[in-house]
Amino acid sequence: MPRVSTKENKTLYQSKREELGLSREKAAELLETIPPERIERIESGKFTAHPDEVLIMAEKYKCPELCNHYCANECEIGKQYVPEVKVTHLSQIVLEMVASINSIQKWKDRLIEITADGVIEEDEIEDFVAIQKELERISVMVETLQLWSEQKLSSGSIDPEVYERIRAAMEK
């Protein structure tokens, strides 16, 4: 059993590796292209992981949330545009999504009024911002549901072959 760090405030990369019971050396074997020294530097925050390294860790650790974490917290573009998603139970995700969709339904007519002339007047800005915030909330819930699905696919809770077959058939 590898020695477990007692350090507080571990990075998500270190926490996920340790959850799998992997030493850095064993993780390097699993990851194939990232040596133990590089893993240590990424986990300690001395170096920022490269996107390709995060993709490999996400796949091999079966932890797709590493990609969202990287984009939302480490990528300079993502820090501005990608919200960090916290996956909860499916029922909570769906209820929050339905609540947001219901809320935006109430705003639908107002959005048409505001945007019909192609100009957002000063007295319309407050409602327009409120509508944007609700749309952002829906977007985050969609991303949360997507990440939940990816986690279930990675863990085998959802059969990846069946999922991909159905998804491909729907794209036709």
Low-confidence segments, ≥5 residues, pLDDT <50? none
Estimate what percentage of residues fall within beta strands: under 5%
Order of helices and strands: HHHHHHHHH
What is the number of independent domains?
2
Overall 3D shape? elongated
Structural class: mainly alpha
How widely separated are the two ends?
49 Å
What is the total tally of β strands? 0
The biggest sheet, with number of strands, parallel, antiparallel or mixed sense and barrel status, is: none
The overall pLDDT average reads 94
Number of helices in the DSSP assignment: 9
**Radius of gyration using CA atoms only:** 21 Å
Helix content: 55-70%
Description:
This protein is mainly alpha-helical. It has nine helices and no strands. α4 packs antiparallel against α5 and α7 packs antiparallel against α8. It is elongated and about 60 Å long.
Secondary structure: elements and pairs:
Elements: H1 12-19, H2 24-31, H3 36-44, H4 51-60, H5 65-73, H6 76-81, H7 90-115, H8 125-155, H9 160-171
Helix pairs in contact: 2-3, 4-5, 7-8
Describe this protein with a few key phrases:
2 domains, 172 residues, 9 helices
Compose a concise summary of this entry.
The chain is mostly helical. Helices cover 69% and strands 0% of the residues.
